[in-house]
What does this fold into?
Amino acid sequence: MAECGASGSGSSGDSFDKSITLPPDEIFRNLENAKRFAIDIGGSLTKLAYYSTVQHKVAKVRSFDHSGKDAEQDHESPYEISVQEEVTARLHFVKFENTYIEACLDFIKDHLVNTETKVIQATGGGAYKFKDLIEEKLQLKVDKEDVMTCLIKGCNFVLKNIPQEAFVYQKDSDPEFRFQTNHPNIFPYLLVNIGSGVSIVKVETEDRFEWIGGSSIGGGTFWGLGALLTKTKKFDELLHLASRGQHANVDMLVQDIYGGAHQTLGLSGSLIASSFGKSATADQEFSQEDMAKSLLHMISNDIGQLACLYARLHHLDRVYFGGFFIRGHPVTMRTITYSINFFSKGEVQALFLRHEGYLGAIGAFLKGAEQDNPNQYSWGENYAGSSGLMSSSPDVCPAQRTRSGTFDLLEMDRLERPLVNLPLLLDPSSYVPDTVDLTDDALARKYWLSCFEEALDGVVKRAVASQPGSVDAAERAQKFRQKYWNKLQTLRQQPFAYGTLTVRSLLDTREHCLNEFNFPDPYSKVKQKENGAALKCFQKVVCALDTLDWEERQLALVQGLLAGNVFDWGAKAVSEVLESDPQFGFEEAKRKLEERPWLVDCYNKWLQRLKGPPHKCALIFADNSGVDVILGVFPFVRELLSRGTEVILACNSGPALNDVTYSESLIVAERIAAMDPVVHSALREERLLLVQTGSSSPCLDLSRLDKGLAVLVRERSTDLVVIEGMGRAVHTNYYAALHCESLKLAVIKNSWLAERLGGRLFSVIFKYEVPAQ
Amino acid sequence: MLKLVSGGSGQDWACSVAEAGLGSEGAAFEVARPGDLGEASCGGPGWGCAGIPDSAPAVGMLQAGAAGSACGGQDAEELGEPVGGAEERPARLPPPPALRLLNRKPQGGSEEIKTSENDSQRGRLRRGPRAAPPASGMGDYGRQPERSAPHTPGDPTGARAAAVNGLLHNGFHQLPVQQPRFFNRGSVGSGDPAPPRLLLQPELQPQPQPPPAQHDSPAKKCRLRRRMDSGKKNRPPFPWFGMDIGGTLVKLVYFEPKDITAEEEQEEVENLKSIRKYLTSNIAYGKTGIRDVHLELKNLTMCGRKGNLHFIRFPSSAMHTFIQMGSEKNFSSLHTTLCATGGGAFKFEEDFRMIANLQLHKLDELDCLIQGLLYVDSVGFNGNPECYYFENPTNPELCQKKPYCLDNPYPMLLVNMGSGVSILAVYSKDNYKRVTGTSLGGGTFLGLCCLLTGCETFEEALEMAAKGDSTNVDKLVKDIYGGDYERFGLQGSAVASSFGNMMSKEKRDSISKEDLARATLVTITNNIGSIARMCALNENIDRVVFAGNFLRINMVSMKLLAYAMDFWSKGQLKALFLEHEGYFGAVGALLELFKMTDDQ
It folds into this structure.
């Protein structure tokens, strides 16, 4: 019963305005290719889901066909780049007020070009009401889906695919939202859906859930009684009214019964003994605000109490709340949280969901798409196409509110391959990739937001330069600029919009926005050039290393890794040097490095370790193209191979900044193998394996890695993980605890961060960790 | 373990239950787990014995005194549960040691102690140091068993009480009662009172005295005090009152000795006589005071005296008038101890002392509730059982009130519905814990009804509710799904959203005040039922006893509760009710008076 009959939450217009002008291109994106629809019509909001395909330009690298030495000489670069079109799958969700439903259906009908779809899955209380309209407008048969089933399916989907989907609400902290890392196993949990009534559902597996109870005292009771008691007839306004009231004028409190004695008795006098206990009199008028507040407390407390009782009975501690009573309203999230804390004495946490409003639509969609096996894939939230969580707190960014009240979007990209945890994580349930939580750390947030703003023009320039032949590159780049700029402004106001704000999320958002405007790989040319230049130096570097004695060589290898890591276009300080002085060389970089002892310096311990038996298998996460991977990582890899250690070299699946991609790494390895017998034989004998991470981020989330990688890591009994670079080893994973030895190394190429860590620009992090036995 | 006494005193009510068929809220859709209650029900061996040595009660009392007050453990939950505003979390201050009642579960159960007899059950508390249970206050009369407990010899309380027999004598003097203006407003009983710090009275020496004058000199007081002997050294002087001052109603029980000898009568001070006459010859006092004549327990032996126990109530708002009257009538000259429980015992303590020169003996409300309930059940209701249930609760046609034998009542879930609701798990007469409570209680029903319909009294509200139809106001499952919601096995007639139809203007315009009153009653009742049922499951208890003045003249709620317990638990849970609904706290307070005197 969830949402049924709940109309009006947020509904503003009474008039049914058909002529409303939609900015359709931005709302119903990719509609031409849409092939499967689902709709969830609630009391006031409609959520439309469709599956579509997106054509992207992708930069592909391809090795030249070097039949002869001559051919190779002819080419400056080690490989060729071609831009191709690639089609990826994407889920679109659009939320709008029911007022617009007819206009929206018309728009969809006009733009639905080549769909073969005959059916639309529908759920929600309004599915009944609007059935005829939908069938008439879209010429699709409406297939009604069970509300609860859809909710649960949707809930499972977001919990599995959207990191930091769930959050707790803390009223006095800034921001009020605390996002939770997803537990590797989302089951079992309790879903308390507060629509007009309350449904409490226990979810045990993907397909098994059970209605274990409910209550008739829910959002409809608040609304219905509120409408009777006050002159306010709309849900949102009632909440607003309640937020201004004093319930103690209406409720009988403990102190009203006990007088002052409650203190000596250890009772909290402000507890409510009897809701509305003071209103049992004819000779007093009560203010509407006070009554609304009392009603809100009464209902929230009651729901919280029942939820706790059910949670205890079923031994569950994860309780998610949803439904229109909750839907982003700080007032109700606050009272529910309070009640849960009170009744469970802290044993149960009230959890809320960022995409709670979409659960029904997602579930209905998934039901209809079962033959496509959407659950076999991993999906990722596309930050560029999603609106993000909006605080409905009135003083926060009114413009954003208005927009979110009208149209709200969520886009999920289907990822090529399923993502899983790195099997070596010590405790997957408590692993947090990010080192600094910018939602929390206002100072750091300010710095990084400004930093990304300042770097934006450079990124735009680079994007335009990457597509010299394109007529509209400048225009697209401006659009990209605008989009990312807006995102940054949103995040300034509402840092919690996409979950916990981190350097990683800022970087990822930028990549998503670049992709959105068809700048799939702005650095492809740069990377190509650098790889070419570095490959030319490879042999010289390796020879130099081979002349060193063992101990000198070990240090030189590590310094090489670090020096290589200075070559990072993502870091502002470096990109400036690289732009102004392209000759900046590997040796110079070494000279720039901090002298030992480094800022974090575990080198001696590492050296000691190297004197011991070789590792069985090392997993290395590479960072940048060019000097970094070729002159830093490969010599290091070569040394490990010589020691008898197998190596898994993991590179990004998709491009991000100048990070080396998997496909580039294949070519680079091939070229190195041609020069170097050690690498050559290792590749041939599969002692050196190149894999993709499944990610397209400059950072690294060890809980979302390519399944193939995870399998390989397990098969080869990996006992060393090397994580290189600021994005992967400092912004993320700095504190990541693993089952095996790990090496995290980076050069701090940001003076603010360096300072924060107690160092200076180009300070070195060399963190070698051995897990406690 | 449960025996049903059949053939009760035919108080079958007409089964006009309304909601029984459909009142269930959308909420309670859950199947009860058949509990495994076996062992729990055998009560604990520890206290089955009737005879508790004379000294025992004293110990109990002293400890209660020292350990004081009750609320310690229940703390926040006490009445309200819920929180007031989200503003502050309940401060869970441990009460000062002197006030700590040892039988109370301190917060959250962390300190609970398992007793040997029930450690199979989770979380109950044992009244540690309080060696003798309070009810043993009556125990010392054991030597003259006289009346056997109507139903169960086995019941210790009953046995003991029954053992009591008549001693005569008592001095009365007049309390020129011009009683307070009582308001005649029924309503919901107290929220739940609190525990006391016992103040021992100065010694009472028997020595009958001539009637004192209205205003006593110290000398007179002294004489009076001696006079007050009620025939036995450690028997309290008359008058005997027990009071429970709740959030809405004050409940007063008065013991009228019927075994007064001529000699005694002569000695009875005017004040005392006048109280007796006034209380027993009227059934209404002032505007709002009411004596529930139908509840009177006749020919009862208490503390060795034979007499009738009267049940009187008036609104808490009349408390000041009452105290004023106490002052004007010089009640303090009687040197009686006024045993009081309920929050008001604390709230008005100062007023009693300052205005009426009366020292209240404050008692824990949950202790009193349980002891009072066990006592009344043990003595029975003038030959009939105190406890009853509804047979065929799910069938409006066949639903019938039937007597129930509460011989071995443990464990039981006790749901006390006053202004707010407290839910206790009772494992033996002095081993219980407060499980939870809710602020949606009788006060909420009346408060909302007043706001929604403009009514002013509980009686009025119930009368309207009896005529209304809640299904106009509530949104039912069938209103949403057009029928049953089969996916979850919900009947179409189940309430999906209380007041849910009131979201729409047309519906708001089409309903009557009676409908609103009915919907309010059904909503509150079902919610209490739902919480009680969950508690019963969590605590693994299958007997749920409903008490409190919310049930007064409230057949609709009783039948709804009986229905809900039975239906949602598939017959596993039994709802039990008691004739003296809201008076147990006051009775418990009176029992403390006897114990207290024993101590001396």
